[in-house]
Each structure stands twice: as C-alpha cells, then as structure tokens.
Amino acid sequence: MVQDIGAKLRAQGRRMTPQRQRVLDAVASLAHATPDDVVAAVAGDGGPPLAPSTVYRALDALESLGAVGHTHLDHRAPTYHLADHADHVHLVCRGCGRVDQCTREAAEEFVGNVLRSTGFVADVTHMAIHGWCSECARQQ
Question: Residues forming the annotated binding site for Zn(2+)?
Fold first, then answer.
C-alpha cells in the first residue's frame, strides 16, 4: 500500500515525506486514533519533533490519496484508520464509551431499509451507531 501512496503522491507532484510516513505509521499502529492521538504517537516515535499542524496536514494529504479514512464516533474529533480497514461499522457504547465494530454486512438490512423507504444510499462506514454494549445492557 505504501508504494501505491508514493506513486499517487508523485503523480500529483508531491512525495512521501518522512513526516507523512511517520503519520501513516502512527495511524497504522493505533485503532480509532484522533488527530491528538496521532500527534502523541509521532512525538513518541523517536523521530524529530513535528508540529501538530504538520500532522494535521499530513492526515489531510493521506486521506485525499485514499490511504487513510476518518469516522465521527461522536461530537468530538474524528478518528482515523487505514483506508483498507474502513470496511466496518463503529459501535459506541453510551454507558461505558467502549468502541467496538462489526462488519458492514451486518448493517446491510438497515442500509436496505433506508434505501427502500427514502431512496437514500447510506454509507455506514463513515458513521457510528450508538447504543449499549452487552455488559452495559445487562446492567440496565
């Protein structure tokens, strides 16, 4: 995947800088990482310091190339993940805040119902479904 990203960058007159590579590596090593999580991971990776604005610009560049994607789990900052790991639905517990995931196929009935009733084609991989995890549901 990294070679493909490098080729896409070069086609646009850009390149895979060490900074972008460090940001991509941080996203790859973290699950559902906020931009602040990525900034912290890059700060602790042993490389030279990067300004938060550099990390944000790298995330934007990597997303525009299709290398990373983001999801809004709630009203806070988006969370980033590798684009090839984007084919899932986020499940956020309202009780404990835990974030789980299920396959996109698990939400196909919902997507089909929305399409039939409204004509809207839902992209559930860019959203989160809020509810209660099995542990919190038992306590209710």
Answer: 93, 96, 133, 136
